[in-house]
Amino acid sequence: MTMQLKDLGKAVLATEYAVRGPIVARAQELEKLGREVIYCNIGNPQSLGQRPITYVRQLLALCEYPELLTAAPGVFPSDVLDTARAILEGTRHGLGAYSESRGVRFIREAVARFIEARDGAAVDPDHIYLTDGASKGVQSILKLLIASPTDGIMIPIPQYPLYSATITLYEGRIVPYGLDEADHWRLNPALLEASLAKAQAEGTRVKAICVINPGNPTGAVLDAANIAMVLEFARKHGLSVLADEVYQENIYLPGDTFVSFAKVLHDRGIKDVSLFSFHSCSKGFQGECGVRGGYFDHRNVPADVAAQILKLQSVSLCANLAGQVATYAMVNPPRPGTPSHALFQKERGGILESMKQRAVILAEGLNRIEGITCNVIAGAMYAFPRVELPPGVNDEAWCMALLEATGICVVPGSGFGQAEGTAHFRTTILPPTDKIRAVVEKLGAFHREFAARV
Amino acid sequence: MTMQLKDLGKAVLATEYAVRGPIVARAQELEKLGREVIYCNIGNPQSLGQRPITYVRQLLALCEYPELLTAAPGVFPSDVLDTARAILEGTRHGLGAYSESRGVRFIREAVARFIEARDGAAVDPDHIYLTDGASKGVQSILKLLIASPTDGIMIPIPQYPLYSATITLYEGRIVPYGLDEADHWRLNPALLEASLAKAQAEGTRVKAICVINPGNPTGAVLDAANIAMVLEFARKHGLSVLADEVYQENIYLPGDTFVSFAKVLHDRGIKDVSLFSFHSCSKGFQGECGVRGGYFDHRNVPADVAAQILKLQSVSLCANLAGQVATYAMVNPPRPGTPSHALFQKERGGILESMKQRAVILAEGLNRIEGITCNVIAGAMYAFPRVELPPGVNDEAWCMALLEATGICVVPGSGFGQAEGTAHFRTTILPPTDKIRAVVEKLGAFHREFAARV
């Protein structure tokens, strides 16, 4: 007898991942039938026409095939050749060998310099792990934290479903805390305390709180005061903090800056809260989703626990080396005065400026549709608008109808979590400007017709 | 209060991974102190001087930086340029976008053709998943299979510790079955039945059997009859089969050929055993460990279970795209008559011929040492010799003493499992020929002195 569905674990069956769920499957079917689909379901910039950063790809090509260091004169700027040579020397054996489990030390040292320049606080390169995208790092730390079925992890509502899926898969308890839609999706101490108290009353041992900043799917950007509030909350209740900071380059409003959890931890001299911070090559302006590069670093983690992290990483051998190189490129961009600097700045600026424009077009356009309201998109790559639905219709049905009618593929709010009695959807800001305008137009026409019909 | 060791789960604490354990840590310390270390602990060919296959690296460079398709005339053979163009078209968005969760379909179709040519049996490309090395695929399937703490997975003793580590981490039960050292480490039906009966008597629900062929660490190569025996055993007891076939190119004895579990399953018309087969870019003659490429395919898995596999993979988004390209290169080598064929054949032949020689030098050399016996190394990249130790000395102490005395880093047999009362170690065959000779010499001198001293 073959395997049977009933033989699978409850945790596997209960795991949900809406970003690639049934609506996306239907979109792929429609595309095969010849329909044009606009994929707004996933933060995958290069699938929607964003061009890779030349500096990143030149480094990757040179490191993959070092013969190019001398075989293709005139093709690569001199500083890129020098950087590729330095990386190859740093890896010792090139990209074809497993690295140390934490990742190539030369690259971790570059990550440490990047963090120090950003935060004004040093970090030990041995507390940095290079990972296959940020997701793998998040999953490792959740596995570490969830020790029994009554262990709980606080996650925002709405959240990125990596968190809910992984906690379910590892048989922990999801402890949801609400983000305040009326206050730009900020974290609110009263909502945090209420969430914790409710979980504890249910017998849950709350181990950690996850924060996504800038927010996915909310687009909110936290300031230092809001971050300090979260750290004090964690300290008060003995929680670890997971700071998902993969959108740290994606900040759109004048005056806003990215503030890391690590910086606030350092500035306030907090020594009694364990912090894990995650970063990725997939977002920002690189948008190198396919390379699966990223890192996490940890603070205030006792040496015996850190040894367990190293052990778990060693079972998975190491992160892919191309991803490690892309991480180096991310933390070590061309410097002013180098031959590759001007093109890099032009490409970087073009992408970020265009994202900023699209964020405005999308949010303003959505707010013009009757029955749809959307917070300002301050950061990240998404809008999470609220939509008024007729009684008896849920957000999944609405999203499916939108797809069938317009070819626009978005994800229902229920996949991210939303306040009881509300309906939302998540859309990326990533389609090119003309398509973003078309999305707004078509979505408006669809919703007017839908609201009138139902 | 920060995280504490006591907050971690028992499964995390219990997980062991000897290939990167304390002996390797000590080796790294010695190296920092200026000692020469010969790393025989891990199958990492390019770290020991093996050169990458030019075809693979040219494809990777071209796909990473497609400008090279036209910018570097004369550098790349025309067929490699054509293949890179085909891959890029197959990915649709290049290497910078997430692919489908299963991996790029164009590449899965190439894997399906490779399997069909090898086995004479077709496979649905949607039953193939491209993975970040074979390890990630193995871990996914073990996660799927282990549904409760009484679920057990049969693994060979000795085994590759990915299996024991992952089963422990996912809180299943390890069900060990012995390989018959006296019969070239083959699988023996009596040992399988005894293992299963013992586990069942202990209340274990045995779900699957893992087989590594060619064997790691044993170097054994199974024939069709031995594989058929395993499949009939699995059928009789309703087990799934995990076939770890990452060393399928590494076959050294004249007359031996690699026979896949899938081929035997097909040839015998077995429809009631679920089979998962794993392959990797890290081994064979490519030895591209750093690229983290590989795949698994499944047979006789009901559609509802297959849907769960797809869902789990989707949480991890997709395998890295460079690894997917390397997998394409593995299953689609240059054809006779193409410009890149001659160099490819020369590189491939040189590596495999040299491995075959080193396997002989190592096994014969080890057998000349009094107190050490080693089976013929028929396949894979390792020897797992037995060593006679004085009373009161275990294999870990011996390996550590070997490292301190000679700089040779091997892994104790206890990390892989061994019959009660025996001691072994695992060494790779990967150091260059002159170093392999030095390893044999030094190891012999060390053991004579060790045996006399203790």
Automatic annotation (TrEMBL), chains A, B:
Which keywords annotate this record? Aminotransferase, Pyridoxal phosphate, Transferase
Leader sequence segment: none
- Name any one GO molecular function: pyridoxal phosphate binding
- InterPro entries reported for this sequence: ALAT1/2-like (IPR045088), Aminotransferase_I/II_large (IPR004839), PyrdxlP-dep_Trfase (IPR015424), PyrdxlP-dep_Trfase_major (IPR015421), PyrdxlP-dep_Trfase_small (IPR015422)
Could you tell me which SUPFAM superfamilies the record lists for this protein? PLP-dependent transferases
Where does the Aminotransferase class I/classII large domain lie? 82-443
Family in the record: Belongs to the class-I pyridoxal-phosphate-dependent aminotransferase family. Alanine aminotransferase subfamily.
What assembly does the database describe for this protein? Homodimer.
- PANTHER family linked to this entry: ALANINE AMINOTRANSFERASE (PTHR11751), ALANINE TRANSAMINASE (PTHR11751:SF29)
Name the UniProt record assigns to this protein: Aminotransferase AlaT
